[in-house]
Specification:
This protein has about 240 residues and is of the alpha/beta class. Helix content is about 25%, strand content about 20%.
Length: about 240
């Protein structure tokens, strides 16, 4: 046991432009959000699994699959322009003020990545505890062409440079020569110490950040129809290997 209270927060607002009603759309036979809920409920490290939503329809589905929905998120916190920090702050403060439940850590579980396994959640929380971190961020190694070392930027007057501003003539020709490894967030799990949300500015990360490194086969972030199709293929492949 971790010796602390950790609550899983699954944010799921009703609006979605690229994939209409995304959180309730069928993904391998279940609403997309159901996969995150079911995985979270299998975690040995989470004390509670709560869906933060502004939608009564999403709340009903969340409860059907076993999550708690003790509140409906205010509409002001359910627009495309709102970052995730106010959403987590609202959930944390609501639980503290209305139930007297004060979480020691929040596990942010985005439903846009249905590829996570319970072990991802548990291992990230164990790392958070072992390293006494302010946050743990799930990542995988960035594909070489997406690193700053091979990313190109087009400036005014048709001038093209590397992301660093260096000329293309200085580009490294082999990825083995990169000075350091780059990582991309894959949204499997963020473990957050609540005090990070009350810093200026509010943030997920704090000062002591640990990376929880996973394989790239778990990388997904469904925001478009193409993302959806790619995630379905990866999900089917992973299910065959289970």
């Amino acid at each position: 046991m971790t010796g602390m209270q950790t609550v899983g927060i699954i944010p799921a607002r009703s609006g979605s432009k690229s994939v209409p009603h995304k959180n309730l759309a069928r993904f391998h036979g279940k609403p997309l959000i159901a996969w995150t809920i079911l995985t979270a409920l299998q975690s040995a490290r989470l004390d509670r699994v709560i869906v933060s939503t502004d939608s009564p329809a999403i709340a009903r589905v969340a409860r059907r699959f076993g999550a708690e929905t003790p509140f409906l998120r205010p509409k002001s916190l359910a627009t495309a322009r709102i970052g995730i920090e106010p959403v987590l702050t609202h959930a944390y403060e609501w639980l503290k003020e209305q139930e007297g439940y004060q979480a020691d850590a929040l596990a942010l579980l985005l439903p846009t990545n249905p590829l996570r396994r319970p072990s991802h959640i548990d291992e990230a929380i164990d790392l958070f505890v072992a390293r006494r971190a302010d946050s743990v961020v799930a990542v995988n190694e960035t594909p070489a062409n997406h690193t700053p070392y091979w990313t190109l930027v087009k400036h005014k007057r048709r001038r093209v440079t590397l992301f660093s501003g260096e000329p293309l003539t200085d580009i490294l020709t082999r990825r083995q020569d990169f000075p350091q490894t780059c990582y991309a967030r894959n949204d499997l799990v963020y473990v957050v110490r609540p005090h990070n949300l009350f810093e200026q500015p509010a943030n997920l990360y704090g000062q002591r950040i640990e990376l929880y490194i996973t394989g790239s086969e778990y990388d997904a972030d469904i925001n478009t129809a193409a993302d959806w199709e790619a995630a379905e293929l990866r999900f089917a492949r992973a299910s065959k290997n289970d």
